[in-house]
UniProtKB/TrEMBL annotation, chains A, B:
Protein name (Swiss-Prot/TrEMBL): Crp/Fnr family transcriptional regulator
UniProt key word DNA-binding: yes
InterPro entries listed in its UniProt record: cNMP-bd_dom, cNMP-bd_dom_sf, Env_Response_Regulators, HTH_CRP, RmlC-like_jellyroll, Tscrpt_reg_HTH_Crp-type_CS, WH-like_DNA-bd_sf, WH_DNA-bd_sf
Organism: Rhizobium anhuiense
Transmembrane segments: none
Signal peptide positions on this chain: none
CDD domains referenced in this protein's UniProt entry, alphabetically: CAP_ED (cd00038), HTH_CRP (cd00092)
GO cellular component, one term: cytosol
GO molecular function terms attached to this record: DNA binding; DNA-binding transcription factor activity
Family annotation (SMART domains): cNMP, HTH_CRP
Amino acid sequence: MDVARSELFETSTPVACASCQARHGVVCGALSSGQLRELNRHSLRRKIEAGCEIIAQGAESSFYSNIMRGVVKLCKVMQDGRQQIVGLQFAPDFVGRPFVRESTLSAEAATDAEICVFPRNLLDRMISETPELQRSLHDQALKELDAAREWMLTLGRRTAGEKVASLLYLIATHAEPQTATSTAFDLPLSRAEIADFLGMTIETVSRQMTKLRKRGVIHIENFRHIVVPDMDELQSMTSA
Amino acid sequence: MDVARSELFETSTPVACASCQARHGVVCGALSSGQLRELNRHSLRRKIEAGCEIIAQGAESSFYSNIMRGVVKLCKVMQDGRQQIVGLQFAPDFVGRPFVRESTLSAEAATDAEICVFPRNLLDRMISETPELQRSLHDQALKELDAAREWMLTLGRRTAGEKVASLLYLIATHAEPQTATSTAFDLPLSRAEIADFLGMTIETVSRQMTKLRKRGVIHIENFRHIVVPDMDELQSMTSA
DNA sequence: GGGATGCTTTGATCTAAATCAAACAGCGAT
DNA sequence: ATCGCTGTTTGATTTAGATCAAAGCATCCC
């Protein structure tokens, strides 16, 4: 293999990432092996328990991370305590707000999770040096923007029942395929968190879930484990 | 001035843009004068009447645009006709979804507007050749993402009165300073559009506006023209 | 086992906002 | 002027979802 081919191969193929191991995030895939080695020297793999905050709303953060495993929720809270989940992120998403130090939202592990943490300064430098990385992060931002706008439609115009069905469908669609069938999954969110994602109350969430159960659209194995016999039927409940 | 200084100057300073004239958008500011000339050869300045669609939801679009003047609303509609405005854009914002041909939302002029239209293929090429442009568009995407998430909080957790106050405050904040005082502005949206932005009905919008009027927070000169005597008071109505 | 404790479900009631219905105001066309 | 036509306000009524309240059910600890 000549040099040109070799370099092309190294920059365009995910290279084993010591910190991230087999999983490759938005960041790792866009770096050359040299950059990856440098990033790895300064990055840290961390296990995060469900409920732990990764970034606090209003705080200055000096690091970014990649999700290796688990689900992270992005949350905004008002002074009086009302709160709204504004995004759910799954492996291998990137967590952080490029170009702005102060976070306007909090990021918190919804489930036990593993993240790969690296310093902000270093990645910012790499972004400015690596168009492919910029592009990769740009892509993720646009993907999140599409998701946020889709959710705005849900928040503004769907009924309680449609909202719950939309959430279940979203999670079923994004769940890690740990279970053999794609029709069973663990809910990464409590009823209270679901309420905060859907802009409603715990009680209404619960009532709508039992309504879906009684209609046979879902089976509730236990609070956190859901079986969906027919995904198309669930999808059809997301709008009239 | 030597060559190096001259080039630096040309790439880092907005260059007069024939099509866009004095106003410079996200795109123009990031291009070299050579690229700008090429873009100008293929771009078109267009006047758009209020209500005209720029991009249709679900359609493939072969162009992007910059807003020169006016307000553009981004809208999603469901099969049964329910609809939600998911973004408002003001001059000199960029309109279009880089990297994806099919639009998941429609863009429509909310007021009479002028836009600068240029071919998708050409700009896509320039994006890949110009890290500064990529960065500029990345910035705009992140800004829109922040705005979308802020609005999710409004949609999910604010009351009708708070929603209306939030919208008025948003518009007052982004309005072009055509009027001498920053406390008077034209509403770019009809009551129906406001309702679609806030996820509620026309009647509720109207009632909440008269409530604000009766409390003296706003004066309604006519349907479209609003005066805000005390901006801080308006802001305080956006949350309890 | 028997409490505590922390979710979750279920029930009864209330209310903010939707819906239904009418009147009103601006405006261009005849 | 008068007649539509469209967008807005106001009023009466209904309802989806919130709130208030209690009971069910796991899990952990003694």
